[in-house]
Amino acid sequence: LAKTTQPISMDSYEGQEVNITCSHNNIATNDYITWYQQFPSQGPRFIIQGYKTKVTNEVASLFIPADRKSSTLSLPRVSLSDTAVYYCLVGDPFSGYSTLTFGKGTMLLVSP
Amino acid sequence: EAGVTQFPSHSVIEKGQTVTLRCDPISGHDNLYWYRRVMGKEIKFLLHFVKESKQDESGMPNNRFLAERTGGTYSTLKVQPAELEDSGVYFCASSQVTSGYGGELFFGEGSRLTVL
Fold it and tell me: What tens digit of pLDDT does each residue of A2-34 get?
């Protein structure tokens, strides 16, 4: 199983762009990178998933370099409501999500 | 469209008692997962159903835990007898994997279990 390393916490202000980087040095060929967001007392919520290069949706962008040993979740113009824990998961979703492991995540605090 | 629903939202029981947690996945989702987070720990996989079949139950901690998904719709997770270390939040998630897309997991809000 690919092990991931993320910063424990990050601070930002409203309107700024936030980039959270995840290291996954032993990522396997079939592995995807998936990011989830979790608010207190709620279940995790899918943000974005990618395999290589760049993926963008209405919420975030995911940048994956050619060697795929790291990835960066980019949140444009964060607001107070983006305060949450963000998890980077690496694994093969086609093999079932037992291969995806939630680490400690990154606690993002957005201030006014 | 209704999301994943879990019941109860919070259960407080005494050690040795039995608790049954229920999960209703999103309609049409064949894949159903149970996860849990015990105090101070990371979210851990428990098991995975594909329709009514257990695809992977490698994360189930011991035989005090029994999961079922009769008919391939809702699922129950029974803990019998409950121990103090079973306290935590139990999450259910569902997904529909299609060709070429690993799909996202849709999580419920969790069932908090407190064993006294």
Answer: 689 999 999 999 999 999 999 999 999 988 999
Number of other residues whose CB lies within 10 A of the CB of residue A55? 16
* Chain B interface with A: residues with Cβ < 8 Å: 4, 31, 33, 35, 42-45, 47-48, 55-56, 58-59, 91, 93, 95, 97, 102-110
Q: Is A93 on the interface with B (CB under 8 A)?
A: yes
Percent of chain A with pLDDT over 90: 76
Beta-ladder partners of B38 = B88
Picking from B45, B59, B107, the nearest residue to A43 by CB comes out as B107
How far B37 CA lies from chain A's nearest CA (Å)?
A: 10
